[in-house]
Every structure is written in structure tokens, then in C-alpha cells.
UniProtKB/TrEMBL annotation:
Coiled coil: none annotated. The gene is glgB. Keywords: Carbohydrate metabolism, Glycogen biosynthesis, Glycogen metabolism, Glycosyltransferase, Transferase. Residues 300-311 have a biased composition (Basic and acidic residues). It comes from the Bacteria. Catalyzes the formation of the alpha-1,6-glucosidic linkages in glycogen by scission of a 1,4-alpha-linked oligosaccharide from growing alpha-1,4-glucan chains and the subsequent attachment of the oligosaccharide to the alpha-1,6 position. Residues 33-85, 95-107 have a biased composition (Low complexity). HAMAP family: GlgB. GO terms for molecular function: 1,4-alpha-glucan branching enzyme activity. The active site is at 502 (nucleophile), 555 (proton donor). It catalyses: Transfers a segment of a (1->4)-alpha-D-glucan chain to a primary hydroxy group in a similar glucan chain. Residues 1-107, 300-321 are annotated as: Disordered. Belongs to the glycosyl hydrolase 13 family. GlgB subfamily. This is 1,4-alpha-glucan branching enzyme GlgB.
Length: 839
């Protein structure tokens, strides 16, 4: 993997100064009243009315921006509900019960609890706030800063609580038990609103969920942690849950409480490190973060690690989300498991969504990308990382929101719409997944709760030496659970058909990019990262068990044994396989590109670079990748790597693609290379589509290459010899692998029935007449099915339009042979066209 540049986002400052509440003009949407973090505010400040603060004054706007980086504007509905004009009507008051209940006494919060609640260090706010039985009745306690008065109301109850100062209110009422579903009526200077008491609810996360989290085995972790709109005990709201075992306290802050979490402390649920709060009336679209009090008493605002939606960068708040997408790809999902990926046609078009057609949203891409990919005949698209990331220049490889598609292109449901559209067009969707590292942004995962949590506690193990990022602690069960569940999440919630796992080599080796003394051997004295091995095995086993038809693909650049071997099969090195379905063949990519980049006269000295891949071709299940990494950072585009003039460059480009599609293994081609773009790719402007404009003088040159790619995929999908036995050595046989002086490579591919396809690649800029190639003798004639030198592709049109009859002349160890005319810088495919001769 090429190191990616990054630019950290702005540092998140301290929480903003508190603000006074505003009336809610919409009685149908009651929200909890805002609260104040500092009980020592002067009476003058506390008496400021909501009307004085309505409309977002300059001071309020500045405070909001300080609370979170580059906050994006709220939707119009939310803005209207939270910042009404001075003339907005007050909320409708609930009917007043005819017989008020008089409090027996006050029941103030004990001083120690009071201090901890105000400092945000209380682990059990529900044990103090809310309603609790006491001698003489039931004690009600509330923390509502800025309020003038708080009353408890129910169907037959209205009782005023006493003001204990600092935003606390309490009373003991002569009741054997709190009335079911009681609410709080909170009175401010200019408003009165009725809300459900968040501290009267039982935990909204079950014991079984907590048990699985504690064991590190919650395979649907995204359903337990994060923000979930729900109905709990008959009340609608949002459950907030977060894993922060080192925190002294956690509070929820967001737009619904003006980024002041004093009145929204969360409770700790046992020894799991999970904190929970059910917030009534908080719904979809609300912005939020977690305010965490670190072990040293300092505070930090953090985005939700399990957030399923985020703000658009550079803003970084999490967004409460519930999906409403209705899928229409049942037929695709039912069919995709019919044949394993390594035994199926598998031709991949790699795409960077943000720059494929710059400016398009997920839904706009859904109107164009499926049609384009389908027209070119690719079976799959591979999307460069779509998980949220702060810096676009990282191309998505430095992730901060592992459970959220990037908001740059739309909502999570919009992304589902794109996947759905691709499936309905018959195209599989692969996604780059990055569990190797994460950036150090201090509003994200780095030292999340004040201590190393997601990263390894050993600084030498935590710091990634190449990319300035942090590596995950794969030995910690909760971190491993976070990542394993994340892999399943994309497959199950977004119907992703495959995960290409980035930078696997950096995970597998303790000494990856480290010098002597910068790493510690494992318990066996070796360099293998045993925790990472166990994680990858668990991830693959879980994904394949839960998602039939899904494939995992490793970008692994070393000779690690058993990348695509089953996890329960032990190899000669003593390790079980990693369990991937496919592996990128980085060796083939490096060697073959090295060969074609040489001048033809020098290629004879590098002939082995094109044949060496067959020495290990069946050691793993391979993908042949011409990816984004090969066309950036000074490496030049594919066609620009080729020597010679423009005609020779395009001809070699076409011949190389023909060789690649015929070689054992699956294919992957990065966008722009399908029409021989001459410039390197840039995420800022994407492919040079103008090259295909008919008004451009050289448009035919580029269109010809694209037409070839379409025909390569068409013939490839129809010829089982090119994919059915990709992992079977019996499906391949060299015909001519030593013709270094001629720059010729010829081989046979066989399908499941043994029917062959002959591929001949000629990488010299001359025509070779009467070139004899040995073939099986049981076929009466051979037909050319593809020739990269055809005129319509931009070639010289040296072709074989008529069937070729083999001659009974032995050649290349075979009893018969064909006499071919080899076009310059071209690949030719031929297949038998007549039934086998009768014996």
C-alpha cells in the first residue's frame, strides 16, 4: 500500500459556556430542557430569558462552533424548533390537575453526589436523580439548570419541587410509588414545557448484550452501542451507549441540549465499561457527541465510535440515524452464493466515488455508475473506502467513522440506494476496508477515554511508522469485537458483497517498517503479530459464516503462507490459514509492469518477469490488480508507463490488458485506465472524461481502448476456460514461455470440460509471419475471438478473419500446430470452433 498523505483536523476545544434554554414552538415535538454545566452562574445570568438568546446570537454561534469543529447548519426543521423568533408562541401547557399534591419535605441531592454530577464524574446518576422510595413517601430529584421551577405531573398529580440551588430540585411526596409515566413540567423565565424524566427509565440495553460485549463476542455490536432511536417503556427517544471503561464519567451533548451535557449524565453498566442513557424526545437527525471525563479529571468531546451517520467534514459530530431504505435486491442476494468467487467470472472496476464524477451524490451516482459499469461488462465494482474520514486527501484510508458512510456524498440510506442500484444492474459491490490503523484526531478514537483504548498501550506497538497513525490493539477482545462486527456490519446493513482488506502485511508483522530495537518479538521469538493473525482469522470466519456469497480479499504484499487457506487448515509454518477468499497478486503486478515499461529491444532480458508468476500462481487464490496505487505519486498512468510513441503506447497498453485478462487470476482495473487516460489520477478532479468527447481530435484513440475493455469482459465472461479453473493447475499449460528473442508468450487455458482457449501475446513492434504455435490435435479448426490489434481498437488490423486449420506438424511438444501472423504489440485469443473429431 502506498503511504497516504494526511492532514489532521482542527483540535477540538473545551466545551462551550452554558446557554439559557429556549422555548419549543412545536408542542408535538417536546424535547428535554437545556441544562447548565456551571451551578455558580450569577442570578443575573440565570434570569436571562430564552427570547434573549433566540435566533442564535453571535455569542451563541461562537460557543456552538467551539463545541465541535466546523459545525454544519442544522436542518430547517430543527432550527425552527430550537431557535424560535421572539414572536413564536409558547408551548401549549398540559391540563393542570384539580388537586395539587403538597410535598412533605425536600430531599436534596447529597453534597458528594451533587459535586460529582456537576463535574461530570458520576457513574450512577439514575441512582440519585429521578424517583426513589424514602421514609415517608417517594423522593423526586431533578437537575434542570436555568429553570425557575420544576413540578412533577401525572394524570392525577401535580406537585412542585423545591429549588435546592445550582439547578437541583427535589421533594418528598406522600406516595407509595412514583406514578407510572410521570413527567416534569419545567418553567423558565419565558417558557414552560413538559418533558419525560430521563432518570425514571430502566436500562435500555439488555443483560445478554452486556454479557456479549464483556466477552468480546457481540457479532451485532452496532445494534447495542451507538445512538438508536427507539420506544422504551412506551416513550420515544434515543438510546445512547458508548464503551469507555477508563472514563470517570460520560455525558451526552448535542444540539438538543445546546452542547451542554450537565443535565444528561450517563450511567455505567457494570464492569463492561459501557455507559448508557435513554434520552426521551431526542430523535433522528440530532447532532451529538460524548463528553468524557478522563482519569485525570480533564474533559474531552468525542464523536461516537459506533455512529452510523456523521456530519459532513470538516465538521465531525455524530448524527442520530435510523434507516428507512427498502431494498430491492433480493434476487441478487439469493443468487450470489451459487458459485464461490474463485470459481466464477470476477472482473473488477475500481472506483473512487468522490472523484469518478466529481460533485455527484450517492443517488446521482446510482443513475450513472451502474449503467457505465454494466456497459463495459465488469462483474463487480470495488469502492475505495467509503467509511467517514476527516481528510479527503487520504482517499478514505484514514478512517474516523468506521460505521458511517462518508457524509460528503449523502446519507447512509443514499449509499444503500447506490448499492441497491448496482445490484439491480447485476453488479457486485466490493468495498475497501481499513482495520490496520486509524488517525490521531483528538475527537475520534485516539486515547478515547483518556488512556490507550483502541490502540495498543505499548507506544512502539501503537504508532504506525509509515503513516503517522495508530495501530489497533488486536489482542484486546473489545477492540477485536469492534472490528469483526464492523466487517459484518457493512455486509449485512449495506449488502456489500466483499471486503478488500487494506494493508494486511502491516498488520501481520511486528517489524513492519521498523528497525532493530523498535519492535518486540512474540512469545515464540518470531516477528509474526499473533494477535493480528487471530483477529483476521476470526473476522474471516465470522463474515463467511454470517454472509453466504460474500468474499474477503487481502491486499498482502509478502509471501505469507496461507492467506487464502481455510483457518482450520494448518500450513507448514504451523499457522492456520488466514481465511481470505482472494489475495491481490502484488508480485505479478510489479513484475509485469516492470516488463512492459522497458523498450521492446530490452524486454528479452526481462522475459522471466512475465513468466515467474506461474511459479506460484496456484499457491493462493489471486486477483491481478492494476489499482489506484499504480497510477499516482509519480508512477504515471498505465498507458504512460509504456515506451515509444503514442501509437506504440496504446498498442502495448491493449496487448497488456489482453495478457492480463487471459492470465490465471481475477482482474481489477482502476478507473480511467479503461480508456487509456494519459495523466495520473488525482482525487481533486478524477478521470479525464473529456478524452471521450467526440469533439476532441484523439477521441477515437481512447474510445478504441474502452471498446477493447468491453470486448475483453464480454469474451471473458462467455469463456469458462478463462475463469472456471483459476485455482487449478490443470487449467493452464504453457505453449511458448521461452521465446525471449521474439517477445512472445503463448499458453492454453482449459475450462471444466477441458475445452481450451489459446492466448498469444507479442510485445515487439513488428509483424511476425508464419509463427508456429503448437496446439492439441483433436480440433479441426481454430477461430480468432479477440485481437487487440483490430482497427476498431486503434490497431494496425493484422488479424485472422477466417478459421485456422492446424497442421500435422509437431511443435512445442504437441502433435499439431497453427501458423499465425502475429500483429505488432498485440494479444490474440483463439478457440476451437468445430466439434472434436470423431475417433
Amino acid at each position: 500500500m502506498t503511504p497516504r498523505p494526511r492532514k489532521p483536523s482542527a483540535e477540538t476545544p473545551a466545551p462551550p459556556p452554558p446557554r439559557t434554554p429556549e422555548p419549543d414552538p412545536d408542542p408535538a415535538e417536546r424535547r428535554p430542557a437545556p441544562t447548565n454545566a456551571k451551578s455558580t452562574k450569577s442570578a443575573k445570568s440565570a434570569r436571562k430569558t430564552p427570547a434573549q438568546k433566540a435566533g442564535r446570537t453571535a455569542k451563541a454561534t461562537e460557543a456552538a462552533k467551539a463545541a465541535r469543529t466546523a459545525k454544519s447548519p442544522r436542518p430547517a426543521r430543527q432550527a425552527a424548533a430550537k431557535t424560535p423568533p421572539k414572536s413564536a408562541p409558547k408551548p401549549r401547557k398540559a391540563p393542570v390537575p384539580a388537586a395539587p399534591v403538597t410535598a412533605v419535605a425536600a430531599s436534596p441531592v447529597p453534597e458528594e453526589d451533587r459535586v460529582r454530577l456537576l463535574e461530570g464524574t458520576h457513574h450512577d446518576p439514575h441512582g440519585v436523580l429521578g424517583a426513589h422510595p424514602v421514609p415517608g413517601g417517594t423522593a423526586f430529584r431533578a437537575l434542570r439548570p436555568y429553570a425557575k421551577a420544576v413540578a412533577v405531573v401525572a394524570e392525577d398529580l401535580r406537585a412542585e419541587l423545591r429549588d435546592d440551588g445550582g439547578g437541583f430540585f427535589s421533594a418528598v411526596l406522600p406516595l407509595d410509588a412514583p406514578p407510572e409515566g410521570y413527567r416534569l413540567r419545567v418553567t423558565y423565565e419565558d417558557a414552560e414545557l413538559e418533558i419525560d424524566d430521563a432518570y425514571r427509565f430502566l436500562p435500555s440495553l439488555g443483560d445478554f448484550d452486556l454479557h456479549l460485549i464483556g466477552e468480546g463476542r457481540h457479532e451485532e455490536l452496532w445494534k447495542a452501542l451507538g445512538a438508536h432511536p427507539m420506544t422504551h417503556q412506551g416513550v420515544t427517544g434515543t438510546r445512547f451507549t458508548v464503551w469507555a471503561p477508563n472514563a470517570r464519567g460520560v455525558r451526552v451533548v448535542g444540539g438538543f441540549n445546546f452542547w451542554d451535557g450537565t443535565g444528561f449524565p450517563m450511567r455505567s453498566l457494570g464492569g463492561t465499561g459501557v455507559w448508557e442513557l435513554f434520552a426521551p424526545s431526542v430523535g433522528e437527525g440530532e447532532l451529538y457527541k460524548f463528553e468524557i471525563t478522563r482519569p485525570d479529571g480533564s474533559k474531552t468531546l468525542r464523536a461516537d465510535p459506533l455512529a452510523r451517520r456523521t456530519e459532513t467534514p470538516p465538521a465531525n459530530s455524530s448524527v442520530v440515524h435510523a434507516s428507512h431504505h427498502e431494498w430491492h435486491d433480493a434476487q441478487w442476494l439469493a443468487r450470489r452464493a451459487e458459485r464461490p468467487a474463485h470459481e466464477a467470472p470476477f472482473s473488477v472496476y475500481e472506483v473512487h466515488l468522490a472523484s469518478w464524477r466529481p460533485g455527484l451524490t450517492y443517488r446521482q451516482l446510482a443513475a450513472q455508475l451502474p449503467a457505465y459499469v454494466s456497459d463495459l461488462g465488469f462483474t463487480h465494482v470495488e469502492l475505495m473506502p467509503v467509511a467517514e474520514h476527516p481528510f479527503g486527501g487520504s482517499w478514505g484510508y484514514q478512517v474516523t467513522g468506521f460505521y458511517a458512510p462518508t457524509a460528503r456524498l449523502g446519507t447512509p440510506d443514499d449509499f444503500k440506494y447506490l448499492v441497491d442500484a448496482l445490484h439491480q444492474a447485476g453488479i457486485g459491490v466490493l468495498m475497501d476496508w481499513v482495520p490496520a490503523h486509524f488517525p490521531r484526531d483528538d475527537w475520534a478514537l485516539a486515547e478515547f477515554d483518556g488512556r490507550p483504548l483502541y490502540e495498543h498501550e505499548d507506544p512502539l506497538r501503537a504508532a504506525h511508522p509509515d503513516w503517522g497513525t495508530l495501530e489497533f490493539d488486536y489482542g484486546r477482545k473489545e477492540v477485536r469485537n469492534f472490528l469483526v462486527a464492523n466487517a459484518s456490519y457493512w455486509c449485512e446493513e449495506f449488502h456489500i458483497d466483499g471486503l478488500r482488506v487494506d494493508a494486511v502485511a502491516s498488520m501481520l508483522y511486528l517489524d513492519y517498517s521498523r528497525e532493530h530495537g523498535q519492535w518486540t518479538p512474540n512469545v515464540h521469538g518470531g516477528r509474526e503479530n499473533l494477535d493480528a493473525v487471530a483477529f483476521l482469522q476470526e473476522m474471516n470466519a465470522t463474515v463467511y459464516r454470517r454472509n453466504p456469497g460474500v468474499v474477503t480479499i487481502a491486499e498482502e504484499s509478502t509471501a505469507w503462507d496461507g492467506v487464502t487457506r481455510a483457518t482450520h487448515h494448518q500450513g507448514p509454518g504451523g499457522f492456520g490459514g488466514l481465511g481470505f477468499g482472494l489475495k491481490w497478486n502484488m508480485g505479478w503486478m510489479h513484475d509485469s509492469l516492470g516488463y512492459v515499461s522497458k523498450e521492446p529491444v530490452h524486454r528479452k532480458h526481462h522475459h522471466h518477469e512475465m513468466t515467474f508468476s506461474m511459479v506460484y500462481a496456484y499457491s493462493e487464490n489471486y486477483v491481478l490488480p492494476i489499482s489506484h496505487d499504480e497510477v499516482v505519486h509519480g508512477k504515471r498512468s498505465l498507458v504512460s508507463k509504456m515506451p515509444g510513441d503514442w501509437w506504440q503506447q496504446r498498442a502495448t497498453h491493449r496487448a497488456y490488458l489482453g495478457f492480463m485478462w487471459a492470465h490465471p487470476g481475477k482482474q481489477l482495473l482502476f478507473m480511467g485506465q479503461e480508456f487509456a487516460q494519459g495523466a495520473e489520477w488525482s482525487e481533486a478532479h478524477g478521470p479525464d472524461w473529456w478524452l471521450l468527447d467526440p469533439a476532441y481530435g484523439a477521441e477515437a484513440d481512447h474510445r478504441g481502448v474502452r471498446d477493447l475493455v468491453r470486448d475483453l469482459n464480454t469474451v471473458y465472461r462467455s469463456e469458462g476456460a478463462l475463469w472456471q479453473r483459476d485455482t487449478d493447475p490443470g487449467g493452464f499449460a504453457w505453449v511458448e514461455g521461452d521465446a525471449a528473442e521474439d517477445n512472445v508468450f503463448a499458453f492454453l487455458r482449459h475450462d471444466e470440460q477441458g475445452t481450451p482457449l489459446l492466448a498469444v501475446s507479442h510485445f515487439a513492434p513488428v509483424v511476425r509471419h508464419g509463427y508456429r504455435v503448437g496446439v492439441p490435435d483433436e480440433f479441426a479448426a481454430w477461430q480468432e475471438v479477440l485481437n487487440t490489434d483490430e482497427a476498431r481498437y486503434g490497431g494496425s488490423d493484422v488479424t485472422h478473419p477466417d478459421p485456422l486449420k492446424p497442421e500435422p506438424v509437431a511443435s512445442h511438444g504437441r502433435p499439431a500446430s497453427l501458423l499465425l501472423t502475429l500483429p505488432p504489440l498485440a494479444t490474440v485469443w483463439l478457440r476451437p470452433v468445430l466439434p472434436p473429431r470423431c475417433a
